[in-house]
Each structure stands twice: as C-alpha cells, then as structure tokens.
C-alpha cells in the first residue's frame, strides 16, 4: 500500500486500553459499544492505531460483530463513519446498528462486520470537518498521504480484504444520498442501492417522495468522487463501495433509524446476491 508510515504514530495497545484511558468526545459516544463488547460473545472492541496531533493522543476505534455462521464463506463488510469530524450521525447509527445485531444476530448471518465509527478523532473532538492538520480526509486515501488516519484505515482495508465497504455521512439535501463504486457496478447498484434507498426513507415522512435514480448520484457531495475509500488498483478483487449520506436537517433520531434501516437492507440484499450467484 502506498500510504507512508506517519512520523507521529504510536503502536496500537491491547484491546480496550485506549478507550478506558481516553477523555475525548468519542469516549462518551462509544460507551454503549464498549459495554456491549465486554458482555457479548459476538462483539470485539479494539483500536487500529494511535497517533499524536500536537501533544494530544488520539486513537481510531474498531468494533467487530461476528454474525452466526452461514452456508458459505464469511462475508467481510467494513463500515466507516466520522470521516468528517462534524458528522457524528454515522457513529451514532453504528452504535444503534450493533445493538440491534446483538439482539437479533440472525440479521448478520454469514457476516463479520468491521465498524470504524470515529475515523477522524481529532476533528470529532473539536467538532470540525477536517482533521487537526486541517485536511479533508476524503482526499487522502490511496495517494501516499502522510495523514495517519488515512494510513491506518488504508491498512485495515488492505489487510481485511472486505467484500464491501460503506461510508456514512450527512448531506444538506432534503433526501438521502447514495453513490456506488466497485466491480459488477450495474448489477450490484440495482441489487443493493435501490432497496437501501427505500429502507432509508421509511421514516422521512415529511420529505417529498424520491425515486432511486434521483437519490443515486455518480459522486457524493463535497467529495472527489464515488469510491474514495477503495479507488486503487491495489485491492484485488475490488470491493464494492457505497457512500450513504442522510439529510442533516432531519431529526437526529430519524437520521439514525434511516441509516440503520439502510445498513440492514444492504446486509440482506448482498447475501441474496451471493446466494443467487452460487445457485447459477
């Protein structure tokens, strides 16, 4: 992978040591996931790496949900939130999503789900869009960046060889916004995104109706292009990538419910796609 080793990174510590020592904003948000990991046989908490921004130490947390074994190979899915530090909605949705998976593990049959709820911890702590270096992280993946967040997350994507990755964010538009990138684009786009759009809109009762074509764009707002997490020839086979942004003006609880609905829809749809392919 082309990302350079950041000059101020520090080795990742064991399991949840990082969380218990942290006094940053993400500690309060992620407390339910930390408790869940401590009491569940299905959830693992850890950190992908630590780094200094100025004199402050930050970590990038990772939570893994190991769903019940399915009939085929395990599907590895990565979910990334908080890439923009002023968009905590995705992190909150991951907390709710994992709580639902713990209560209804059948939703994740055949999956190992890797969730990164705070990908930009220095921006999150300051409630700022960019990281502590003033950088928009969406522009730093797979470009030999010296930003530690990009380095650590690229390493995760490369090592775990995800079948698919999903990034969560927020939009100023009135409707949820999806973009899609990856192999077999036309097939997966129809199979995964259209049902997710319908699932995400179930609770947006005050918004005008929208069809799948108008909600699906070639690139997410304020980003380089669709597929910023996976746009590299180093990932073979290339995972699919879905960028999902929920309207920020919707009530916060509505944003979370819509995002969780979309995630559950994608799990179900992709499992169906793989089962269909195996039966051909």
Overview of the structural elements:
With 280 residues, the protein is α/β, with parallel strands linked by helices. The protein has a single domain (9-279), classed as Aminopeptidase, CATH 3.40.630.10. Helices cover 36% and strands 21% of the residues. It is built from eight helices and nine strands. A nine-stranded mixed sheet has the order 1-2-3-5-4-6-9-7-8, sandwiched between helices. Strand 2 and strand 3 form a beta hairpin. Helix 6 (185-200) packs antiparallel against helix 8.
Strand order of the largest sheet: 1-2-3-5-4-6-9-7-8
How much of the sequence lies in strands comes to 15-25%
Structural class: alpha/beta
Number of helices: 8
Low-confidence stretches: 1-23, 209-215, 217-225
CATH class: Alpha Beta
- Total beta-strand segments: 9
From the coordinates shown, what is the CATH architecture? 3-Layer(aba) Sandwich
- Taking Cα atoms only, what radius of gyration do you get, to the nearest Å? 18 Å
Primary descriptors:
single chain, 280 residues, alpha/beta, Aminopeptidase, nine-stranded mixed sheet, 8 helices, disordered N terminus
Give the structure's gist in a few sentences.
The protein has about 280 residues and is an alpha/beta fold.
Please write out the topology:
Blueprint: E1 9-10, H1 17-21, H2 25-39, E2 43-53, E3 56-66, E4 75-81, H3 89-103, E5 111-116, H4 121-126, H5 148-160, E6 164-171, E7 177-181, H6 185-200, H7 212-215, E8 216-217, E9 240-247, H8 252-279
Parallel strand pairs: 4-5, 4-6, 6-9, 7-8
Antiparallel strand pairs: 1-2, 2-3, 3-5, 7-9
Helix pairs in contact: 2-3, 3-8, 6-8
